[in-house]
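Subgroup meeting minutes
Present: P.N., E.W., G.H.
Scribe: E.W.

1. P.N. recapped why we're keeping a running log of single-chain structure predictions: easier to compare across weeks, and new members can see raw inputs and outputs side by side.
2. G.H. added today's entry (64 aa).
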Amino acid sequence: MVDYSPLWKTMAEKHISQYYLIKHGDIDTKTIYNLRKNGNITILTLEKLCRALDCSPNDIVRFT
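Output recorded in log:
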């Protein structure tokens, strides 16, 4: 199962909001919704999140 709880922790540590990701990270609201529901995202979206947050994929997602 995919778990995006590391994303929310990383965002809090870096003081980055969902609004910032939408405006500056090229992430749309549907993707934010999918992340909240632990839904599927593309590798491209994962890359965009890593760039926007300056982190690695392990700081965004974990598999349980």
